[in-house]
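User: I'll paste a sequence; please echo it back and then give the predicted structure.

Assistant: Echoing your sequence first, then the prediction.
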Amino acid sequence: MLTGTYTAIVTPFRNGQFDAPAFKRLIDLQVKGGVDGIVPVGTTGESPTLDYEEHIEVIARAVEYAAGRIQVMAGTGGNSTSEAVYLSQEAEKAGADSLLQVAPYYNKPPQEGMYQHFLEICRVTKLPVVLYSIPSRCGAEIAVETVRRLAGATPRVVGIKEAGGNADRVSQLRAALGSRFSIFSGDDALTLAFMALGAHGVISVASNILPRQVVRMVAAWRQGNATAALKLHDQLYPIFKELFIETNPLPVKTALAMMGLIQEEFRLPLVQMSAKNRAILKSTLVQNGVLRHD
């Protein structure tokens, strides 16, 4: 069963190209921070702007650099089923441990289309599949009934990343699928709320910069220490908030650049943060001990 803290890891660029050495440094920091796994080329990894070869290279490098120390849940979703199938097969060849499959975006398929889409992916891979429902980006939600149908039709579908901001979905999913179906919060600020209702962990943006603290928060709750978990949540909440002051992954990559870990580089149509929001982010990071005062 998949549980704990997974980092939706960024894809660093240098001069327009994938920066493999920086990626290795980031993964080593994640391992040191105690995360259970990483999710390369998800939303935070800027997957829409990577071509097929780059997408596969990032996954292969993630597997290489993780070296079995942590799990690699490869983001291989797409709004074309054939694309998602191809990327999933290549991720399996590269040695990924599991797959994250986002709901098909832009084309807004009906629930039957989503069901057939995910079922086809499961047909061509032996890896566990975690669904990813994020209606704000995809324009459509993976219905609880569709999740239940998929889990009943194939043993591959083992969990879901819930990023719709609706805590009631956790209860609905547990009622439909039981406690052994992995539910991950897709929003750092809602992790404790989701876990209080039975979720099993988080696929986190904030753990890119603070892996040890997010791991401690999740672990404290799972160990029954609600007081410690809430204290950590309160400490981290200002950072959770500011990491979404602009579209993800702009703030988290900017924060990593401020920390000297990557170049502050994005691919169009993503651009650098506004000066105002950049100053707010930096101030929050300084106030919370992530950065030193100038």
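The beta strands are 4-7, 13-14, 17-18, 37-38, 71-75, 98-102, 129-133, 157-162, 182-185, 201-204. The chain has a mean pLDDT of 97.
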